[in-house]
Specification:
- The structure is a single chain.
- The protein is an all-alpha fold.
- Helices cover about 60% and strands about 0% of the residues.
- α1 packs across α4.
- The chain starts with 5 loop residues before the first helix and ends in an 11-residue tail after the last helix.
- About 20% of the residues are buried.
């Protein structure tokens, strides 16, 4: 996810009402209710810098994970990238001149 503007994504996820995000992101196939709940936990677990760091490293903050979270943990970041990309929420990083 390094090639995308992660701070913009964080701002969108953190400031958009949860119900709107739920309708926009959950498709029941590649991004399920479990994916959504884990995403919300990650967004709420820290600030923008921490979210970006975890997304770049493809790891997680210290959060309590249930059985559903543990099942999708390995593919979570790829699923989030795919669904956000398909919904037009990811923009490429602008290179400094």
């Amino acid at each position: 996810m390094n090639q995308y503007d992660l701070s913009g994504l964080y701002q969108f996820l953190a400031h958009t009402p949860e119900q709107g995000l739920r309708k926009m992101l959950i498709d029941g196939k590649s991004f399920t209710e479990a994916h959504f709940n884990l995403m919300i936990k990650v967004v709420r677990a820290g600030d923008e810098a921490k979210f970006c760091a975890h997304a770049e490293k493809v790891d997680f903050p210290k959060i309590k994970m249930g059985p559903a979270d543990l099942r999708i943990k390995e593919s979570f970041w790829q699923s989030l990238e795919a669904i956000c990309n398909s919904r037009g929420l990811l923009t490429p990083v602008k290179k400094a001149a």
